[in-house]
Amino acid sequence: MNATPAASPSPDHSAARRAFSWIKAQSADWLHTEGERWIFVAKAMLASFSALWLAFRLGLDAPYTALATTIILAMPSSGMVLEKAFYRFLGTLVGCSAALALVGLFPQTPAVLFLGLALWVALCTGGAAMHRNQQSYSFVLAGYTAVMIAVPAVDTPSSVFTLAVTRVTEVGLGIICSAVVHDVFFPRRHSRAVMRTVQARYAGFIGFCRGVLEHRITPAEAELNHLKFAADIAALESGRAAAFFEAGHSRSHTRQLHAFNAAFMTALTTFYTLHRLSHRLRSAGEGPVLALVEPMYAHMAQALGEELTAARLAQMRNALAGDIAAARTQLAQGPAVERAQQIDFDTAVELLQRFAGNLADFATLYHGLAQQKRQQVSDPGAYSPKTPPAIIFASGFRAALTLLLTAGMWYWLAWPATINAILMATIFCALASSSPRPTALVQQVLQGFLLAMPLAFITEFFMVAKADNFYPLVLAALPLFAFGAYLSSGPRWGGVGIGIGMFSATLVVPTNLMRYDVEAFISSELSLTMGVVVAYLMFKVVLPEHTMGHRGHVAAALWREAQQACSARLHRLKRRFDNRVRDLLSQLNAAAGPAPNAETRVVVRQGLTLLELGHAVIELRQLIAASHAGAARDSLQAVLRELSAYLHAPSRTGGETALHAILDAGTAVRAALPDAQPERRARLHTALTDLHSIYTSLLDQQSGELYAA
Prior knowledge:
Elements: H1 11-31, H2 34-58, H3 63-73, H4 78-105, H5 110-131, H6 134-150, H7 160-184, H8 190-213, H9 219-243, H10 251-283, H11 288-304, H12 310-333, H13 339-370, H14 389-413, H15 418-431, H16 438-463, H17 470-488, H18 494-507, H19 518-541, H20 551-567, H21 573-592, H22 598-626, H23 631-648, H24 652-672, H25 678-702
GO molecular function: transmembrane transporter activity
Transmembrane segments: 38-56, 89-106, 112-130, 137-154, 160-186, 417-433, 445-464, 470-487, 494-514, 520-543
Membrane topology: Multi-pass membrane protein
């Protein structure tokens, strides 16, 4: 019996299948680009108008506050929304308490009250500039919330408690609506974004190391990569903090991410020192040391091209040990080399072994995170930002001066709507204080305000005025708010979208007792815009160079960190020092933009050189603390004294004295090697490597290119 032949698909069926596949592919692509933006807009609008409806039902005095809160809290992921909501509520509570205290202390003395508010705003803005994360948002809120409560109560101090309670209620309502909508409807978990960041970090670092070892990356390109890696470290910590507020993010996962960031910084620092040594050897020309270490670099680069499993890492380290043993034998059997060349070889070997160990720790932590395995790690502490003191002081001073200036305008103009200018100027001076480009941020918000002025007027008097209940009101206001939310969902026009949303929330949304007054509307428009203009001018005029990431302040702060490495308490000093230097480089990267200029690259080189020097100094201090008295220990202490003196008062003479002390210490350490026990011999070899790193770093400083005063 013959089998029935299979029926071939008809042309119509094949065409339909191809069309369906094409539509599916295009839809998937759209969902991951524009689709995500429109889902974000839909969630933002649902949260906004839900809060507005509840505010009307509860009869709150200012329903627009609940709406404005949801607009401000509209963030890409649920973790970011929950994190910002928590700190917004905390800042609101503290700000309302401060307003109650200030009005209670100075109920009949407006001048003193404004001075107290200016001091409070200065402290809060300085705190925001110091932290530079979502915790800083609490400081910002605490500052300008006190102004929002206290200023309207200047003439009627008895109303301040009612204003504070109403503000907390309205903000709390907006927070609840935002948290529920963004966490329930099409939630976008930030923990997934964190894992994508971890994967990109791992792949980028391995590729970078392989490119350097194969000499495909120039020193200048390597420096810029280090600058970007510093920004990545800060971004991962920020993402981890947001993911912490999501369900399923455990404390052990937080420790693993901290350990991953710490392992990355350690491996990056060791590799930079190794790269600088390799570059110096290659710049000096062919020599016996370069011929011995180049095969080790090539073998390690080849190993980095494969998956770094535990077995592969063990194989790489065994192969490295074999290469080192063969190189030592070849060096011993060949002609005698100079002392400097022997030091270079020993240093290269020490750094290669150290980097292999650092890389193994880094890869192990990565695989644990990627495979969602819980690893028992000791928490090395979170990455902590550090802002130069001059920037903190300037941010607080600028915000206080802005408040006093706009308060003087209020008194001089006798224009009731100037209160809006006071609030807007204070808000944006505080919000932009942590930005590396505050004028650009405020300028974008100002563009949003200017764009919203005619749109808000049309929406208010030609559309909202005709709405006879809540649902037509939503239809009338929805296009304007959706437009602002759409713009805020992208990085290019984010500030413009925020400006449109804030401006519209303040002016368009009706109150329970609505009044359609064209004159009052225009007056409010002008005063709100004037406040943003004042904030923009203050950043342009008052201490314009005292902004986050300015290369002059970063260079000075890097130098101070190197000084601290010589004298600060040793407990976790290496981690703190690494954190602070990387954070300063991250600020520099944010301010420099995608194409750093020559002056910025000089500061980057200085920062990386000081990072190498600081790590070596800290290791020397740890070795001294664990060693017994003797000539070697005394000579290392002399190095630290001379180096500390040079870093506190840089000069050619001081640098040369420190260099001589390093040479003397090297002689003393090598003299102690023959009689040393194996454990002490390992420490002495480490000391020689650190002395060599300090010596070459000082030579770079003395060359004049990286000289800092």
